Amino acid sequence: MVGCASITPDLTVNAIMCAWPATLRVFLRHRMGCVGCPIAPFHTVVDAAREYHIDLDMLLAELREAASVPGDANEGMGIADDDPAPDTDQDS
C-alpha cells in the first residue's frame, strides 16, 4: 500500500477511505457525511473540506496522521474491550 503522504488534496474521499480505513474516524469526528455518501467517489478532499467549512491543511494533516498509524488499519473501529456484551437472551 502507498504511504500516507500519498493523501493529496485531489484524491477522492472514497479512495482515501478504501486505502486507509482508519481515516473514517477523521470524517466521523468532524461530523462529515462522507462515510457511506454516494458522492464520495467523486468528491475530492478539497471538495469535502469546502463543503463542510473545514480547513484543508488541518483535514489533510489529520487524515495523514490517521493513515500513518502502524498496525491494523481497523483497530479501534469495532467494539471496545470494556463495552458490555449485547443481550442475546431471546426469552425476555
Q: How does this model look, in words?
A:
The protein has 92 residues and is an all-alpha fold. The chain has a single domain (4-68), classed as SP0561-like (Orthogonal Bundle). The chain has helices at 13-19, 24-29, 45-51, 56-68.
Describe the secondary structure blueprint for this structure.
Blueprint: H1 13-19, H2 24-29, H3 45-51, H4 56-68
Sheet having the most strands: none
* Helix and strand pattern: HHHH
| Mean of all residue-level pLDDT scores | 82
The secondary structure category is mainly alpha
Q: State the CATH class.
A: Mainly Alpha
Instruction: Write down how many β-strands occur, each being a DSSP E stretch of 2 or more residues.
Output: 0
Total of helices: 4
CATH T-level topology: SP0561-like
Name the poorly predicted regions. 76-86
Taken from the alpha-carbon principal axes, the silhouette is: globular
Rg value: 16 Å
Percentage of helical residues? 25-40%
Give the percentage of residues in beta strands. under 5%
CATH architecture designation: Orthogonal Bundle
Distance between the termini: 48 Å
Task: Count the domains.
Answer: 1
In brief, what are we looking at here?
The protein is mainly alpha-helical. It contains four helices and no strands. The chain is 36% helix and 0% strand.
Task: Write out key terms for the chains shown.
mainly alpha; globular; SP0561-like; 92 residues; 0% strand
